[in-house]
Amino acid sequence: DADVTQTPRNRITKTGKRIMLECSQTKGHDRMYWYRQDPGLGLRLIYYSFDVKDINKGEISDGYSVSRQAQAKFSLSLESAIPNQTALYFCATSDPTSGSIPEQFFGPGTRLTVL
Amino acid sequence: EDKVVQSPLSLVVHEGDTVTLNCSYEVTNFRSLLWYKQEKKAPTFLFMLTSSGIEKKSGRLSSILDKKELFSILNITATQTGDSAVYLCAVGPNSGYALNFGKGTSLLVTP
User: Fold this and answer.
1) Which chain B residues are Cβ-neighbours of A103 within 8 angstroms?
2) A99, pLDDT greater than 70
3) Exposed, middle or buried: residue A115 (CB in 10 Å: 0-12, 13-18, 19+)?
4) Which residues from A are below 8 Å from B32, CB to CB?
5) Regarding predicted confidence, which is higher, A31 or B78?
6) Which end of chain A is least crowded, N or C, by CB within 10 Å?
């Protein structure tokens, strides 16, 4: 079984709809991240969480919100989706106890299209 | 502002060629530099470099870090079509203990 899973894997929605992307992990890591990937722009950080009580904005948090429901679950919401949020979204985890070496483990990605 | 710059952005080579991918960075509180390979799915981890001048090797791939000049290179020798992918360089941690990613180098290896 995959250590980091994301649902859904693909989603097509319309402008103005509320969308939630979910991420679950079985690695036991405290730190979780949401990235988006756009052609030519690489990976950009949306939000990150050090633990259940700690949520932080990344470089492109506008238009997004997150919820850390448990150590293993980190959800990303688009309150009112717009077309420029069409992208590939990745969830990742890392283990701060590994000497703070920030190797990150990625989920398979969610391809979101906003029409 | 932290930044990670990869070059070239894209590259086309023939099987058997050797390629060198570059990553330069300017970040505060540097701790490590990571290389990932991304095919049509999530990035997969290749190397993590923390010390200057120590080469990491895995088969035909190798990487080295120069902390004085703030760059790293990823070498792939005897390239194969299966090496075709986007190679991502990331530097961490930033102030939020996340990674700063470069835009990637798209490598295409032709038969």
Assistant:
1) 34, 45, 48
2) no
3) exposed
4) 101-102
5) B78
6) N
